[in-house]
Every structure is written in structure tokens, then in C-alpha cells.
Amino acid sequence: MHKVQNDAQTQTSLAQHQEAMTTYLRDPEQIAPPQQLDARRVGVYRDLVFNNVESQLSTSFPVIHSVLTEEHWYALVREFLRDYRAQTPYFSQLSAEFVDFLSHRTANPEEDDQVFHTPEFLLELAHYERVELDLFMLDREPSSLFQQDTEENLLTRVITLCNVALPLVYQYPVHQISPDFQPSEPPAQPTCLLLFQDDQEEVRFFELQLLAYHLVIKLAENQHSTGYDLLTELAESLQLPTTEQFYEQGAGLLKQLHALNVLN
């Protein structure tokens, strides 16, 4: 009986110690380390946790890391470590958790507006950089199309978007953001992009006009329609006249996409 009680007390003590340690590691600026631990050794763990998280995030979000000041970037990582509770044990998924953190983040006026100015485009930029990483990690599925396919072939056969291409739309021109270009407000027109993995397995972007974006969306959802049928459906959904010029323009768009090797 005494052994069971002692074991239970030991487990409780260990759990309390672990909670105290993790609470400190999450917020060392506000929380004191467990008293029974050597300060120097605790400091090693503290720096190791922060540096590992910061290194992973700065690698995953190089543009965000470049446009924020070093002080602002470190403060954002500290906030993520302190306030966010990740839903996955995989370190490789940390960047996805960071995007989720930003999507639910409520800025503190004292910390954010007066000390730092968090750009309005930050969430969209984080999403864009995360998608780049996701596409880079994918293996391409075999394609049923051939490089010599003509516009006529693309109109008469069933075509779909390949698995390593993704249409995206943003308020901000996220593909242009850099230390030298940081828009303060979104432009009048949204930014439509096609992110894709090229033949060298590098992720690239292709800027789309609105009509092309709607066509790519239909390609991504398609299972049985030919190129001609897709263009007809597109014209109906956008209430456009199905003129010969429309189909010529649509066939040209399909040929452009085929040249990028993003069609199946």
C-alpha cells in the first residue's frame, strides 16, 4: 500500500516538475525556472528550445524573416512559443502550425502597434511560403499528356491539373514582397497565382489573369470533362458569350498551362 502511494506521489511530483519546466521554457521572460535546478543548465535548455524553433521557422519563412526586423521576428517567435499549442508532434509540421497561429493571432496594441508594426500581409505571405514548402515535398504523379499535344488535342481530351500545381488567390501580391517592397494596403485587384513544381522539382509561380484563374480552378476539380467542355462550363458560369474568339483564347490558355507541364 505504501509503495503504491509512493509511486503515485512520485508520478505527481514528476508531472508537476515537467509542467513547471515547460512553462518556464515557453515564457522565460516572465516565468522563473524551477528553483531546484541549476540556472546554467536550465539556460542551456531554454536557449536550445528557442533556437531550434526559431531556426526551423526562419528556414520555412525566409521572406517573412527578411522583411521583419530581427527584434520583431524574435518577438513573434517568442509569442508563438509562449501562447500557441501545437496539434502535431512532428517538427516538420511546425511551419503549418505557425500559419495557424498567425490566423488566430490577436495583436496586443501595446506590444504590436507601439513597439512593432505587424504588416497586414503577414498571414497571406506565411500561407504562400508554406504552400511553396508543401509543393516542394510532393512527388509528382505520372502525366497522361505529351509535350507535342496540340491545342486541338487539349480541347478534345479529358485534362486535369497535376497534383504538384495549386491555384491561389490573395489580396496582396505575395510573390513580389521583399525587403524593398512591402505594400501598406492591398491593390484594387486580387493576385491570382498558380504555384507548381517544375521539371527540375523547383517550385515556381505563374501569375494568372482572372479568367485563367477560373479555368485552372475547373481543371483542378475536373474528372471527366474535355477541354472544350470545361471552357463551355466556364463561359456559362461567368455568363460569357461562347464565341469562336472565346474558345481560341481558352485553347491558348490551355496550351500555356501545358507548356508549364502542369496538366494531366
From TrEMBL:
It comes from the Bacteria. Residues 16-102 form the Putative DNA-binding domain. Residues 167-258 form the NGO1945-like C-terminal domain. Pfam families: DUF2063, NGO1945_C. This is DUF2063 domain-containing protein. It comes from Litoribrevibacter albus.
